[in-house]
Design goal:
This protein has 3 domains: 9-154, no CATH class; 156-234; 240-316, no CATH class. It is built from 13 helices and 8 strands. The protein has helices at residues 32-37, 49-52, 84-93, 95-98, 133-141, 156-178, 182-199, 201-212, 219-234, 240-251, 260-274, 281-293, 297-301; strands spanning 9-14, 42-47, 62-67, 70-75, 104-106, 118-122, 125-130, 147-149. It is elongated.
């Protein structure tokens, strides 16, 4: 049986989302789901880049503008007050502690922390195609790090996707702490293959040959390439059809143990899940029931069947 961590997972977060009064108007944006629910499993490290670069509380707002085909972050009233480089430097200065994180939750729409679709003022028009300066540098510095905005956590699929990636990254950090080897990297991949299959079949097919070329003398370099490729693939939303394909693959390990009634029940559960009539937890629970009766070592060690603590109830909503 897969076991999850007893300690909380380190995750960075925009400070205002945990109630710190650091916004331009002296207020906050406390997010109750993040604070109360995710806070049971994650140990949050708060940070506000705007305060870090010396902007006061309260302060005049800042905004993103397009200048000479580049995006800059400036004072809302005086465009000569340019904070772009200061925010980049702030992100770079945090790299030592951010390197230990397993995820980061950012404030949406923020000119410093927005992950996507932040407002950019371009002459007389406003377009939503910007990325906050601090957020962009964070993601550039740590391309494998799971990053999400608090607004998108309201979408059940995006919420599950982010949290699953956080747990994958947590297990990767554990692997590195315990000592990287060819055997440990191969085992890590074996335990995550079914999760990868549910997100991207193309990457699933690519990573097998990559790992086959890993040797003792190149394992460190290959591991870096591996985790970046894996985490990029896991950003892709897993569709219901993708999950059904994986569930059917898993059922194959029970082929010698299921009678006609068992098979019909599973087929019905898959189809009803595919049509959106059941959540993913239903067919997964049915399969786990059969594997308790007929254990399989590969399936019992696969993180697909138990990707995060059951108390999070994420599979009840997708």
């Amino acid at each position: 049986m897969n076991k999850h961590q007893s300690e909380k997972i380190p995750v960075g977060i925009s400070a205002c989302l945990l109630g710190e009064e650091v916004r331009f108007n002296g207020g906050h944006k406390l997010h109750s789901y993040i604070d109360k629910t995710l806070g049971e499993f994650f140990s949050f490290r708060t940070f506000c880049p705007e305060v870090d670069i010396g902007l006061g509380i309260p302060r005049r707002p800042i905004r993103l503008i397009r200048r000479d085909d580049e995006v800059a972050c400036v004072d809302i009233e005086d465009y000569q007050l340019d904070y772009t480089q200061a925010l980049i430097d702030s992100a770079d200065a945090q790299r030592s502690w951010q390197a230990d994180l397993c995820g980061f939750i950012l404030k949406k729409d923020s000119p410093s922390c927005g992950m996507e679709r932040a407002k950019v003022y371009d002459g007389q028009q406003v377009v939503r195609d910007g990325i906050g300066i601090f957020a962009a540098r964070l993601m550039q510095n740590f391309p494998e790090l799971p990053v999400e905005e608090e607004g998108r956590l309201g979408d059940a699929v995006l919420r599950e996707n982010f949290i699953q990636r956080v747990y994958v990254m947590y297990r990767w950090r554990q692997l590195l702490a315990e000592g990287l080897s060819v055997a440990s990297l191969t085992d890590f991949h074996a335990r995550h293959k079914l999760i990868l299959m549910s997100h991207c079949q193309k990457t699933y097919r690519e990573l097998g040959p990559m790992l086959a070329s890993v040797r003792k003398d190149n394992v460190a370099d290959m591991a870096g390439q591996y985790i970046r490729t894996l985490m990029s693939a896991l950003k892709k939303r897993a569709s219901r059809g993708d999950h059904v394909n994986v569930l059917q693959h898993i059922q194959g390990y029970l082929r010698d143990h299921l009678d006609a009634g068992d098979k019909a029940e599973l087929v019905d559960a898959y189809e009803r899940y595919r049509q959106g009539q059941l959540p993913l937890i239903v067919p997964v629970t049915l399969l786990n029931h059969h594997f308790r009766k007929y254990p399989n070592n590969y399936i019992s060690r696969s993180w697909y069947m138990h990707p995060y603590p059951a108390q999070m109830s994420l599979q009840n909503h997708i």
